[in-house]
Amino acid sequence: MAPRRRPPQKALAVLRAYLLPVEVAVTVFPLIAALIVVPVAIRGYRRRGRAGGWPVLVFYSFVFYLLATLLQTVVPLPADTDGHCAVTRYAERPQLEPLAFRGTVSTAAAGDWAPAHLVTLAPAWTTLLNAVLLLPLGVYLRYYLRRGFLSSAVLAFATSLFFETTQYTGLWFVYACPYRQFNVDDLILNTAGAMAGWIVAGPLGRLLPVNNPASERSRYGARVTLPRRALAFLTDTAGWLVVWTLFAGLLGVAADWPTGRRHALPAGAVLGLLWFWLLPAAMATTVGKRALLLRVTRPDGSPPGALRMTVRTGVLYFPLALLWLTLVHETGTLAMPGPLGAVLPYATVFGAVVLWGAPPLAALLRRDGRAPHERWSGTVNRAVMPPKDDVPGPPVPEPAGDRRG
């Protein structure tokens, strides 16, 4: 029996070089996912009527793939920039001869084209990996983004050209020299691989769940679930914090630090009244609810009126007001009289547990699922169906089955 061939060190080094960016992507991806989770959820409710489901899994896998592919372009980075530029010269000139990889693989194979021999050659692995690098991109373009063959080819070529340009410019001139070569064969192999993925996506798509946002919206769009309401509340609170932080920063720059610090908390309170009370009272919705396609009405669907919105806002944001008073007292901006300052932190926690903990309990225990701020104000949340033009694809009738949110 002939001795079994082992891949040489060069082939193993090529594989390790391609696996290292994937390891980095695994480390970085959770941070990116945390940063985009709220915008992605809002987009899901607006486009499909819900934030979860199979399309979300496909989207996050697409983000991970794009991250890993981008890192293939830049990782590993040279540790010693000056030393690298002084020694490495192969990347100074681009390789512009089409299909030059055939001669490179042929020279390395030395006439032996047996598969067992090719798997030991670094040029063969480099060629193969360049061909499959953008193959998943073609699948995503056809199945998830619904792109045609020609537009997918253009997008794949543009993606590959961006990668090659990034390498040739030394990470867009971060480095003093190119640390990887611009290779026209990479453009050819990457684009061809993406087109192969586009073709594969045809039969593969018949095995996967149907990607039809219009159908999902018709089924889930009218549901007002607890996660949807919680996301609207989080969006309102985060929006107020962002606006207040920017305002306080500009105030500190325009005046001076002591003045900015002295007026920051009162300005936040005034902004809170405008953000959480006056705007909702005038519009019967909030910024967060508007983003989530929600609107406040009476149970019969009529407008709530300013008084009901005032009661609703006061009850809902009472714990936030207590927290604000606690911060004012603890920072010395406004000292509370007597034992009130000592009691404020406990009152804040108690109010948050009772009023903000009630909606989940109401959703589980009460048939109407209404929280205290809704029952006491006589208001409810209602979903606002977006225009049909907001979601591509013809509307599909709702299938029979479970209709619970």
From TrEMBL:
Residues 62-201 form the VanZ-like domain. Residues 375-405 are annotated as: Disordered. It is found in: Membrane. One of its GO terms (cellular component) is membrane. InterPro entries: RDD, Teicoplanin_resist-assoc, VanZ-like. It comes from the Bacteria. The keyword Transmembrane helix applies. The chain crosses the membrane at residues 20-42, 54-74, 122-141, 153-175, 187-209, 230-255, 267-288, 309-328, 343-365. The keyword Transport does not apply. It holds the Pfam family RDD. It is a multi-pass membrane protein. Residues 226-348 form the RDD domain. Keywords: Membrane, Transmembrane, Transmembrane helix. PANTHER family: INTEGRAL MEMBRANE PROTEIN (PTHR36834:SF1), MEMBRANE PROTEIN-RELATED (PTHR36834). This is VanZ family protein. It comes from Streptomyces pacificus. The lineage of its organism: Bacteria, Bacillati, Actinomycetota, Actinomycetes, Kitasatosporales.
